Each structure stands twice: as C-alpha cells, then as structure tokens.
C-alpha cells in the first residue's frame, strides 16, 4: 500500500517503502532503492555501501506530514571501474531536502492568488479523479 502511495502520490518509482515511525507530529517513512545502477554507464554490475541517511520533506500526503528517510549509497561499478554516489531520482537537485513534487507544488502556489490557492487545496481536481471502470 505505501509503496503504491509513493508512486501514486509522489511519483517515486524506483524506491519502495520499508517501515514507518512517528516523531513530533511527523510521519517518517524509511524507503529503500529497488535496484542500483552505475551513474556513469548504467551497468547493474555494481557493489553498494551505505554512506549516510538523508531526511527529505514530501509535504502533506493524505493528512500525513510526511518525511522520507533515504539511505544514500556509494556505488562502485565493476564494468567501468568508477566510484560514485547514489543519484536520488526524485530530488530536484542532488542535495535538495524536498521532493520534486513538493517543489512543483510550492512554485505553483506562489503564482496563484489566495482565492485560487483555497480552491485548489479544498476541492478535488478533475485530474485526480477517475470514473469507475465498468
Ligand atoms: Zn559503470
């Protein structure tokens, strides 16, 4: 369910939900990469070693004030013999602390009037609704 929510709500495809914890009003999901590839040649023939963890804000999803805890790995490629740091695909920049979808939402809200923001936040959008299949 939560891995599906990662994809549906946050457009995060290459990570999966591992566990959750709650702290100071935040829901913190630990997510892990589904597979590792070389940043240089895209080879799957790599070894990985965890470097550190990074906490990334995903905003409010389903009334959860959601943070994502992601392990960052060092990747060594056996094919091209290069060492690199894992590239997190859902960040707008390599060192960002917010997701691409949260950054996009913030930019869209900055360009709207207060009334437009209220309408957007309080009503379901047509693109999020789908007719039941029969
Ligand atoms: Zn490589």
Describe the structure.
The two termini are 23 Å apart. By secondary structure, this protein is of the alpha+beta class. The longest helix is centred in the C-terminal third of the chain and has 11 residues, at 100-110. A hairpin with a 5-residue loop joins strand 4 (64-77) and strand 5. Strands 1, 2, 3, 4 and 5 form a five-stranded mixed β-sheet that branches. It has helices at residues 2-10, 100-110, 114-122, and strands at 15-23, 26-33, 46-61, 64-77, 83-85. The chain contains three helices and five strands; from the N terminus they run αβββββαα. The chain has one domain. Residues 38, 40-41, 43, 77, 79-80, 82 line the site of zinc ion.
SSE topology:
Blueprint: H1 2-10, E1 15-23, E2 26-33, E3 46-61, E4 64-77, E5 83-85, H2 100-110, H3 114-122
Parallel strand pairs: 2-4
Antiparallel strand pairs: 1-2, 3-4, 4-5
Bound molecules: zinc ion (ZN).
Zinc ion (ZN) is lined by residues 38, 40-41, 43, 77, 79-80, 82.
Write a short abstract of this structure:
This protein is α+β, with helices and mostly antiparallel strands and 134 residues long.
Bound molecules: zinc ion
Element-level helix/strand string: HEEEEEHH
Low-confidence stretches at least 5 residues in length (pLDDT < 50)? 128-134
The major sheet is characterized as:
5 strands, mixed
- Alpha carbon gyration radius: 18 Å
Number of domains: 1
- Count the DSSP helices: 3
**Structural class of the helix and strand makeup?**
alpha+beta
């Amino acid at each position: 369910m939560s891995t599906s929510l990662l994809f549906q709500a946050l457009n995060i495809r290459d990570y999966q939900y591992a566990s959750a914890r709650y702290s100071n009003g935040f829901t913190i999901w630990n997510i892990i990469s589904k597979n590792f590839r070389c940043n240089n040649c895209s080879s799957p023939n790599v070894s990985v070693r965890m470097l550190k963890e990074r906490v990334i804000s995903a905003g409010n999803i389903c009334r959860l004030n959601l943070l994502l805890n992601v392990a960052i790995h060092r990747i060594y490629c056996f094919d091209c013999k290069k060492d690199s740091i894992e590239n997190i695909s859902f960040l707008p920049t390599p060192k960002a602390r917010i997701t691409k979808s949260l950054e996009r939402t913030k930019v869209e809200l900055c360009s709207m009037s207060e009334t437009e923001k209220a309408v957007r936040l309080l009503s379901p959008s047509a693109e999020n609704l789908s007719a039941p299949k029969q």
